[in-house]
Design brief:
single chain, 406 residues, Rossmann fold, seven-stranded mixed beta sheet, six-stranded mixed beta sheet, globular
Length: 406
């Protein structure tokens, strides 16, 4: 296998989680009687460009099909994040009715609804049929397609280039980084801006966030690597922000090279990555042991609860939870069920572990002893929502980067 950015041979293993089903491939009752598809979940670090990436690339169709059940609008904190971003970027770039905003991987219109409300022309590009349909119900024009340079060339020819192109948590999801970023350059107008958000590899390593590894995430990114990928396609990063979303993310502001002055924030973060050692291969060694330590603590806790006769449930049927559960080999004898606010997941079963997904009312009635918050990045939001669990003496727990029970 070769690096999907620079083409160098990949020999250095960053993390090996064995084989697992796609984390968002939730099972219907009919599917319980069928064999699931498992794929290797193994990451390598490129010794040349330090891009961390999955061993094998599964087809988009296998991971983002018409039954895809991730809908962004079921997270209140993510909706607020989108609304605050739109207010900020509209003012910063002085966007108005003469501009065009494009969001790539626009999901259910969670972000563009705020753009449209300001009277700014916008459209989404979203490959999954279910989420695209919900966006259209909100009045958001949505093109049902994967994004790449061919799509961008046709769009720019038939429509027009965009003043703002935004792509949240999609850069890590594309198998062909070069084609995707070339498409960004093609669809962006001169003087326009690209904003891209992605989980920061530095945070993943420093906080042992191995559960953010799953098949839909083809790449794990540093600012250094993204800067090099952008530069290869005539783009330049002119600003960068550190965000708290998804356990620690970056928002990169890009443009055509030379279009905007580069702010000191860029060199400052590049220097931080250098000082932390991200330009050396030694930085990427030893992460397997960190992941195993988290997994073992998780499994030991569950086994202890089982021995002592306590019932354990979980909240949040998120992809990261499926990674943790499947790597630990946990089944419904240790976690009875998972609660999720998304009705598209309720009445289904987690991939691999086949733990049932239920509505929150089931939790209120069942009153388990422990509720594990699987999307630990939303611990504060979910803990407030589940405060009533303590009324019957129940406890809340998270396991990344370490065990916290309260």
């Amino acid at each position: 296998m070769k690096c999907r950015f620079c083409g160098s041979p990949l020999n250095d293993v960053f993390l090996d989680l064995g084989a697992a089903p796609p984390s968002n491939a939730f099972l219907t009752r009919e599917a319980l009687g069928k064999v699931e598809s498992y794929f290797p979940l193994k990451l390598y670090t490129c010794a040349t460009c330090h891009l961390v990436q999955v061993d094998e690339v599964q087809s988009h169709d296998a991971l983002f099909d018409d039954d895809y059940v991730y809908f962004s609008s079921y997270s209140r904190s993510w909706l607020k994040h989108a609304e605050v971003y739109v207010d900020m970027v509209t003012e910063r770039l002085a966007l108005d009715a003469n501009d065009l905003v494009i969001e790539i991987a626009s999901n259910d219109g969670y972000l563009l609804q705020y753009v449209a409300a300001k009277g700014i022309p916008c459209l989404g590009i979203e490959p999954t049929a279910g989420t695209a349909a919900v966006a259209r119900e909100k009045g958001i024009e949505t093109i049902e397609s994967f994004f790449g340079n061919s799509f961008a060339m046709e769009f720019a020819k038939d429509r027009r280039q965009a003043t703002l192109v935004t792509a949240n948590n999609v850069l890590a999801h594309v198998p062909d980084l070069n084609d995707f970023v070339a498409g960004l350059a093609t669809v962006l107008s001169r003087g326009g801006t690209i904003t891209v958000e992605f989980p920061h590899l530095l945070e993943l390593v420093e906080h042992r966030q191995f559960d953010t590894v799953y098949h839909e995430h083809f790449s794990y990114l540093s600012l250094h690597t993204v800067k090099d990928v952008f530069a290869a396609h005539g783009l330049e990063i002119w600003d960068v922000e550190r965000l708290t979303t998804h356990g620690g993310s970056l928002r990169v502001w890009g443009c055509h090279a030379g279009d905007k002055p580069v702010l000191p924030s860029v060199s400052s973060l590049l220097e931080l990555e250098r000082v932390e050692g991200m330009l050396t291969m030694a930085y990427y060694g030893g992460f397997q042991a960190q992941a195993d330590e988290v997994k073992n603590a998780f499994l030991e806790f569950l086994l202890c609860q089982k021995r002592e006769g306590r019932k354990v449930a979980a909240y949040g049927a998120a992809a990261k939870g499926n990674t943790l559960i499947n790597y630990a080999g946990v089944r419904s004898d240790l976690i009875a069920y998972v609660v999720d606010a998304n009705p598209h997941k309720q009445g289904r079963w987690l991939p691999g572990s086949r733990i049932p997904v239920v509505a929150e009312e089931h939790l209120r009635q069942d009153r388990p002893d422990v509720v594990i918050i699987l999307p630990w990045n939303l611990r504060e939001e979910i803990s407030a929502q589940l405060a009533y669990v303590r009324e019957w003496g129940g406890r809340l727990a998270t396991f990344v980067p370490s065990v916290v029970v309260s």
